[in-house]
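S.,

As promised, the zinc ion run. Input:
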Amino acid sequence: MFFISFKKEICDMGSKFKCTICNEEETMQFNPMEEWKIEGPLCGKCYSKQLAGHYPGKHVRVNKE
Ligand SMILES: [Zn+2]
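Predicted complex:
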């Protein structure tokens, strides 16, 4: 049982997508935040770039009402 679900996880993580910003094929997918006005998944690099650009100096998520 455990072995089967473990194998499935690896399979899912192995599927590739194209980053919306840099167009590179990546396996680790990050979803952009709504206020970024980006539609589509981002790679880790672009995601952290967006984070830094939108929230300068802060790398923690702030909850705004
Ligand atoms: Zn990217």
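The mean pLDDT is 79. The chain has one domain: 2-54.

- D.
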